[in-house]
Amino acid sequence: MKVLLTIGVLSLALVSLGYAEPNVPGLKPCPRGVYVVLPNDDPNLSSRACWSDPNIKGVMLRAKWSSVEPAPGVFDWSYFDAGIALCRTYNKLAQLQINCGLLAPTWVYTNGATIWYPTSGGQMPCPWCAVMQSSISELITAFGVRYDSNPTVASVTMWAGGKNIECFFAQTQDEIDALEAAGGPSVWATASENIIGSFATAFPTTQLYLACGNACSDGNATMTEVARWARAAYKRRIGLQSNALSANYPSFDPVGYTEFPHTTIHADKVRWIGYQMLGVIGGQRMGDETLAECLQNALNCNADWVQVYPGDPATDPGESSIIAFNTAVEG
């Protein structure tokens, strides 16, 4: 169990950046500390307060697939390039993700991708469709060529078959029935593993994270299977991520078994874990929870880093909780 530590003096340059020592030879040091997660293709990228905040280790830069690849094989990396340039200017690190699923470009359907059962949030390509598998593999390959060797890029969160970045997929009864008709959860699992394999090939030196979600209606068995496979297949190069951190979620059991969200994997057994806040502090989803309470729960549940929203640091007087979290995970 991790416990909150008092503020200490950090002596190593890599530690001050929020890096930890590599856990696999040839792998860039993995991120640690508090990051700020920015909106998709953030129009206010350059004016964010996080750039001048010495206690923020870096940013999560998110872009829509439709923005990154507006036409087949035509890539626009300008948003990521601008964010990484700001990271270098302000001595920060970058975490990257391309949001696919419901944010896929329309051309993928024109090229023949099968539309997955229409969801309440819109439509997405069927993850196991051959056109989708080919298109997403080409995107991931180009993504890795562009950024794997960049030392400012600390990690990448993989899209692995969900409606959004997390692996939520067949949730309604209609969706569950449609998945069964297509062959069942194993079809989704195989598609997800193929996509993860593409990321592992494209990013041989960058830490990858699998954002777990309720993929299928089988008691998290499929998500657990995919997460275990990914971690075993790639020798701990793949960590786990949850985007629903609050003061009480994940549910920490100080004397028992704390499961990583949407799996049956013991959180204490996972080497690299990251959390994104469920919502902004003070917002409807968070109620009266404080950032300090959320960061403490993250530590209890084996976090190495936490992504907070741009306005969250201002709710932490003196940023004492942020500083303490950074010290705890870097110590």
Structure characterization notes:
The structure is a single chain. Helix 5 (130-147) packs parallel to helix 7, helix 7 (185-202) runs parallel beside helix 8 and helix 9 packs parallel to helix 10. The protein has an eight-stranded parallel beta barrel, surrounded by five helices. The chain has helices at residues 13-17, 65-68, 78-90, 107-110, 130-147, 173-182, 185-202, 221-233, 291-300, 320-330; strands spanning 33-37, 58-64, 93-99, 153-158, 207-211, 238-245, 273-277, 305-308. With 331 residues, it is of the alpha/beta class. Mean pLDDT is 91; it is low at 1-17. It has a single domain (20-330), classed as Glycosidases (TIM Barrel), CATH 3.20.20. The two termini are 14 Å apart.
Keyphrases for this structure?
331 residues, alpha/beta, TIM Barrel, eight-stranded parallel β-barrel, 10 helices, 8 strands, globular
Mean of all residue-level pLDDT scores: 91
Number of domains: 1
CATH superfamily: Glycosidases
* Uncertain runs: 1-17
Main sheet makeup = 8 strands, parallel, barrel
Q: State the name of the first-level CATH class.
A: Alpha Beta
Fold blueprint:
Blueprint: H1 13-17, E1 33-37, E2 58-64, H2 65-68, H3 78-90, E3 93-99, H4 107-110, H5 130-147, E4 153-158, H6 173-182, H7 185-202, E5 207-211, H8 221-233, E6 238-245, E7 273-277, H9 291-300, E8 305-308, H10 320-330
Parallel strand pairs: 1-2, 1-8, 2-3, 3-4, 4-5, 5-6, 6-7, 7-8
Helix pairs in contact: 5-7, 7-8, 9-10
